[in-house]
Amino acid sequence: MLEKVLEEALKKGGDFAEIYIEEKQSSNVFCEDDRIEKVNSGREKGAGIRVVREGKTAYVYTSDLSEEGLLKAAAVARHSSVAGSGACPIALMPKKPAFDLSCKRLPDSVSFDEKIEHVLAANKSARNVGDEIRQVTVAVGDLHKKVIIANSDGDMAEDERTRIRLTVSAVASRDGIIQTGYESAGGVCGWELLEEVAFEDMAEKAARLAVNMLSARPAPAGRMPVVMSSEAGGTMVHEACGHGLEADLVQKGLSVYRDKLGERVAADGVSVIDDATLEGKYGTFRFDDEGNCGQHTVLIDNGVLERYMYDRLTAAKDGRDSTGNGRRESYRDKPIPRMSNTFIASGRDDPEAIISSTPSGLLVKKMGGGQVNTTNGDFVFDVQEAYIIEDGEVKYPVRGATLTGNGPRVLNSIDMIGNDLGFSIGVCGKDGQGVPVSDAQPTIRIKELTVGGTAPASGPAKRKIRRI
């Protein structure tokens, strides 16, 4: 039937046709104000069909997975194509994944009662931190998805994907000051994740962060050294670097890394990798959403830009092979180049030695939200947890800090790289689509970065104060 649908899609002579079929089941439990506010689950299925001719794409989706429904969708897609000689017979060959994924407890094997029990225990753990905790939000979610991807080149890939997500947010208040703490965990796995992640401890950590930040001093403002702990995750590399290495933005002239292949774009020792094959990570997959095998892709190697992240169409435009980064949110969306698990590779420096060798500066342990201009690489990020470094020692916490800089300049300003690596998870948004990703970095030191705050900087940085 898939062969028949693809042949129907190419009857008017397109260059390439593809069908993506998806069936997924998801569930969520949400707790707020000391009670379970929401419990939901759902099933969804559908198919997306695209026809490509001379680089232009027609995309049609349907929830009717009968042969008649798929043929009708293929006929609609083919109408966008210029008349041609028609399709040749298509013979599909199944592809085998390069690695397997482990899942011991599938979502449908875990009852809502058990999920609710874990959520309420985490909520209690956070609230037990103290009376200054004003609000706690706890959420868990799971997704199990089956996909089939077939195309007119004869490739067919079948895959199953399971993801689990745990999040806790706590709000603390004292004397009109409000601070938040946030923790999350997740992976491509089953509910055995709860055997690896202590959910109650995670909730307590989020609440203690919120309370501790109430006593923090206002952050200084100025240019100063910044040590970013591996605990901060890879928000910086994902936003300030990763998106600029996605081939569609490069080809549209919306990336600061355009025309930089083979050039030095980062300091010696800095390597940036996108790896969809990491076991258990939130952005891991055996096949991307075009049926290409997930890959380990070195983007920047020891400071030199080696390659971009490609899907099928952007790779064809540059005369290259896909890097397995074609991803889509659902069958309603066409694939575009997206990150998977993106990180700065570990170095050789001891994280404690990085701090002790820094006379003064800012230690960032947790990042907040931010904005990035991929065209020029400029960014601004909020900092959720930070500490002042004086004489090589971590002295006291500060709040209200922001980091302002330029992605390529930051990569070139890294002068120490730790031998650790810390991951964070998230849903990356682009072109109206969200896909699960993880990102990471070791502890790194940036020689100088603009810190925005409300207190004057101490020491030499006073002469360079720039208020934001």
Describe this structure in words.
The strands form four sheets. Strands 1, 2, 3, 4, 5, 6 and 7 form a seven-stranded mixed sheet that branches. The longest helix has 16 residues, at 112-127. Helix content is 18%, strand content 42%. The chain is globular, with a radius of gyration of 24 Å. The chain has 468 residues and is of the alpha+beta class. The protein contains ten helices and 24 strands. Mean pLDDT is 93; it is low at 457-468. It starts with a helix and ends in a 12-residue tail after the last strand.
- Average pLDDT confidence is 93
Helix- and strand-based class?
alpha+beta
Helix content: 10-25%
- Rg measurement, Å: 24 Å
Major sheet summary line: 7 strands, mixed
Number of strands: 24
The dominant shape is globular
Q: Count up the helices.
A: 10
- Uncertain stretches: 457-468
Question: Which characteristics define this entry?
Answer:
alpha+beta; 6-stranded mixed beta sheet; 7-stranded mixed beta sheet; 42% strand; 468 residues
Which helices and strands occur, and which strands form pairs?
Elements: H1 2-9, E1 16-32, E2 35-53, E3 56-62, H2 67-78, E4 93-94, H3 112-127, E5 133-151, E6 155-174, E7 177-187, H4 193-196, H5 199-212, E8 217-218, E9 220-228, H6 235-242, H7 247-251, E10 272-275, E11 296-301, E12 304-305, H8 312-318, E13 326-327, E14 336-337, E15 341-344, H9 351-356, E16 360-372, E17 378-390, E18 393-399, E19 402-406, H10 407-412, E20 414-417, E21 422-430, E22 433-441, E23 444-452, E24 455-456
Parallel strand pairs: 4-6, 8-18, 9-16, 9-24, 15-22
Antiparallel strand pairs: 1-2, 1-5, 2-3, 5-6, 6-7, 9-23, 10-11, 10-15, 11-12, 13-14, 16-17, 17-18, 17-19, 19-23, 20-23, 21-22
Helix pairs in contact: 1-2, 3-5
